[in-house]
Amino acid sequence: MFRHTSELQFTAKPEKPDALYAMKLQELIGGAWGEMTVTMQYLFQGWNCRMEGKYKDLIMDVATEEIGHVEMLATMVGRLLEGAPDDITAEAVKDPAVAAVVGGMNPQHAIVGGGGAVPADSAGTPWNGKYIIASGNLMADFRANVAAEAQGRLQTARLYHMTDDPGVKEMLRFNLARDTVHQNQWLAAIEQLQEDGVEGPIAPDALFDEENQEHARTQWHLSDGAEADQGPWASGQAPDGRHSFEFMADPAPLGGKASAPAPQPHQYVTSRGDSGEAPKQPPQAKPAGEKLKDTFR
């Protein structure tokens, strides 16, 4: 059960309208790393979690908070759009500079949202459920959550420098802080999974006896970079405790030629078979008139 409280989690009140910035702020709502993504990601992780207790409780706490973040941003977008486009557009045409700014607004805000936020990114692309990760494996999911919060905080930081509005900046400072604590929480949860023996550092913690052990420790040097071996990933003990890294300076390919099988003649694919000769094409059907002539010859 979810219960809505009419007060926002934090203030979302700009000093003045800014339709162009409202379009930019849409990225934090409906972008691949926006608040709609983490909201649905954490909700489905929580609903799919098979372990009642602290891990599920953490997921659902953060998931429910993220719903509030969507509401904050949607409210901010609506307030940034106050007076746009009806009141502003008429004046904008009198000043080319202002017209350029108003012309940069997202037309969906007026056409689809009626002057409010829409479930889309800053380019107007609709939000997509394929953005979310909810695999059921807590180690894999928590690592995805760290990445999601890091990307979201990165975009928030960039947007912070794109506005001088003190009200917008105040809200973004709050969002930055929440992205910080959520990253730290998921990182702490990753450590706790290992301390509790629930999951190991490699996800999933299984099939190690089945995998090809010869290739479970090597770094293949396949670029021109001269410092690929200058790190713990190229030598020393691996975090899983099972392997020691090895650096292969000049790896050789292990498979045969990457050749597709010969095509079927009726597919009319330009190719040469194993013999080096072009495959024979099927005979062309004769027109009805030609068949009739052959009959009476």
Description:
The protein has 297 residues and is mostly helical. The protein has two domains: 19-195, Up-down Bundle (Ferritin), CATH 1.20.1260; 215-248, no CATH class. 45% of the residues lie in helices and 3% in strands. It contains ten helices and three strands; from the N terminus they run αααααααααβββα. The chain has a three-stranded mixed beta sheet with strand order 1-3-2, with no helix packed on it. A hairpin with a 6-residue loop joins strand 2 and strand 3. Helix 1 runs antiparallel to helix 4. The longest helix is centred in the middle third of the chain and has 30 residues, at 166-195. The chain is extended, with a radius of gyration of 29 Å. The protein starts with 18 loop residues before the first helix and ends with a helix. 22% of the residues are buried. The mean pLDDT is 88.
Element layout with pairings:
Elements: H1 19-25, H2 27-30, H3 35-48, H4 54-80, H5 86-92, H6 96-103, H7 107-111, H8 138-160, H9 166-195, E1 218-220, E2 236-237, E3 244-248, H10 288-296
Parallel strand pairs: 1-3
Antiparallel strand pairs: 2-3
Helix pairs in contact: 1-4, 3-4, 3-8, 4-9, 5-6, 8-9
Strand content: under 5%
Query: Which sheet architecture does the biggest sheet show?
Result: 3 strands, mixed
Please give the CATH architecture of the largest domain. Up-down Bundle
- Return the domain count: 2
Q: Determine the N-to-C terminus distance.
A: 85 Å
Based on secondary structure, the structural category is: mainly alpha
Mean pLDDT: 88
Strand order of the largest sheet: 1-3-2
